[in-house]
Amino acid sequence: MINTIKQLWRPGTSGNPRGVRRRIALCNQLGLFGATATIPYQLFYCLYDFAVYRGVFLANLVFMAAYLSVLPLNHKRWHNTASNVLLINGCCQLFVVTFFIGTEAGVNLFYFTLAAILVFLYEHLHSRIYIAIMASFGVQYALTHFLFTAETVATPVPSPWSEIMYAGSVAGALTLSGIVLYLFRQQIDHAEGELMLSNRYLETLSNTDPLTGLANRRALDAALEREWSRLARRQQALSVIMFDVDHFKSFNDQYGHDGGDRCLQQIAAAAKNVISRASDLLVRYGGEEFAVVLPDTDEAGARLLAQQLCTAIERLNIPNESLGAGACVTISVGVSSITHTTSDAHGYGGAHLLKRADEALYQAKSSGRNRAVYCPYAQPLSVDTRIAGRPVSDDIDSRSPLS
Ligand SMILES: Nc1nc2c(ncn2[C@@H]2O[C@H](COP(=O)(O)OP(=O)(O)OP(=O)(O)O)[C@@H](O)[C@H]2O)c(=O)[nH]1
């Protein structure tokens, strides 16, 4: 039933952008409303005294036809013409009908409301033009009110019919404005919902690495900043891991760029299985380098995860024959942690923690690869001393391949 009714205001809507479609539908709805709202008046004229009200009845027939003409006009895609017909028709009906029956029946009030709504049909309407149109309707309203007094109107509607018509006009005007406001509210809610969804989608897109589906460096920066301020508040631990695929250049040379891409995807998926806490963030830092932010994770926990990452990637058994028969893809890992007890904990920030993990990664690479190295946050930054007193093999519990 509702769908059948909706078909009535469909003419001309198809093939247009959503906003335009809504305006055309509103134009059709107002055309149908204008014609339908005139019917009770026409019935009154016919049933009460057709001979007296013939003039207004015939004039109304013309107005009804004009209202309905917006449907074929919109169907022919003459949307501006349809809107103009509505506006001019409403204007003329205000004058002509008021001339016949006076202001007692409230029709002038009714068309004034209709005019305000009609103006919405004009796209990109300049506020000055809007004010001008509404002011001209205001003038018309005043003119009809004062021009057509009981003595000047052709055939005034007698009491109590004039009061009934007045009540009907007010009710019609209020209902019409209510419906239109409701429809606009619905459209705004709908548009807001869509905007929120597309904003969320764009945000996800801007924080995601397209190759692996992991978060990207932008998300890492935000997470580090967020977790750093949380660390200061909650006085817990924060760790960062960085890892990098070993000899990836030669892997790429051997298996091509596509093979390299597939390898990165496999590594990302395996790392995702290791980094399973919802609060942890695994990101592709760039190229063949990855990073992990581990909130509420101390040194021991981070070391364990680093070890698990090495094992998980090795267990993928992705061959890298460029390094010799039977060789597999491995990673080197750098880890750094901070707890609230660490001295000058708030001196540097999350970026510094990342830097420490990167230095540890550099150390893991330079000391033979396929291993994990821990670098404390509070150590001096000098390359020579940063892992002083911590032989690489002692840093992370290593199995035999991690010498
Ligand atoms: N297939 C593929 N290759 C990439 C991508 N990003 C970076 N690379 C390649 O990764 C390689 C990284 O090489 P290097 O920085 O020399 O590092 P490496 O060969 O892994 O050497 P180590 O890190 O010292 O073990 C380069 O050849 C890059 O072209 C990517 O998205 N896809």
Overall 3D form: elongated
Number of beta-strand segments: 5
Strand content: 5-15%
Q: Compute the number of helices.
A: 12
N-end to C-end Cα span: 77 Å
Oligomer state equals: single chain
Catalytic activity: 2 GTP = 3',3'-c-di-GMP + 2 diphosphate
InterPro entries: Diguanylate_Cyclase, GGDEF_dom, MASE7, Nucleotide_cyclase, Rev_trsase/Diguanyl_cyclase
EC number: 2.7.7.65
Domain GGDEF: 236-377
Characterise the protein shown here.
- The protein is elongated, with a radius of gyration of 38 Å.
- A 5-stranded mixed β-sheet has the order 2-3-1-4-5, sandwiched between helices.
- It starts with a helix and ends in an 8-residue tail after the last helix.
- The chain has 12 helices and 5 strands.
- It has helices spanning 2-8, 18-68, 70-75, 79-101, 107-118, 127-147, 161-206, 217-234, 248-274, 299-315, 350-366, 392-395; strands at 238-245, 281-286, 289-295, 331-338, 372-374.
- The longest helix is centred in the first third of the chain and has 51 residues, at 18-68.
- Residues 380-403 have low confidence and may be disordered.
- The protein is 62% helix and 8% strand.
- It has 403 residues and is α+β, with helices and mostly antiparallel strands.
- Strand 4, helix 11 (350-366) and strand 5 form a beta-alpha-beta unit.
- The chain has 2 domains: 2-204, no CATH class; 217-395, Reverse transcriptase/Diguanylate cyclase domain (Alpha-Beta Plaits), CATH 3.30.70.
- The protein binds guanosine-5'-triphosphate.
- Guanosine-5'-triphosphate binds next to strand 1 and helix 9.
